[in-house]
Design brief:
The protein is an all-beta fold and about 90 residues long. It has one domain: Immunoglobulin-like (Sandwich). The protein is built from no helices and seven strands. It has a four-stranded antiparallel sheet with strand order 4-3-6-7, with no helix packed on it. Strand 6 and strand 7 form a beta hairpin.
């Protein structure tokens, strides 16, 4: 699930209940602008099941931008699964 808070210019992604296992997982999270203008977050490791990213408004074009979130869940044996989601962020003038 992804969401946008315009007041704080914060993008949020949550993968609570996306990956099912009886074993502990850790996650690698990557976030980038869809137009390929570089990574905002590049494979950050975490055990959390969500991430908040505060964006600087100058990074967002006036027409808006789509953020691409990728989350890779990895177990201690090294097996992994990746899910992705997009979030449109409106532009600022």
């Amino acid at each position: 699930m992804t969401s946008w808070n315009a007041n704080s210019t914060t993008a949020t992604a949550s993968w609570q209940n996306v990956f099912t296992t009886d074993h502990p997982l850790y996650y690698e999270v990557s976030v980038r602008l869809e137009d390929g203008d570089g990574d905002i977050v590049q494979w950050q490791e975490t055990t959390d099941r969500d991430i908040d990213i505060e964006l600087k408004t100058e990074k967002i074009p006036e027409t808006g931008a789509t953020l691409e979130f990728s989350v890779r869940a990895i177990n201690h044996a090294g097996y992994f699964e990746t899910v992705s989601a997009n979030l449109f962020v409106p532009g600022y003038m």
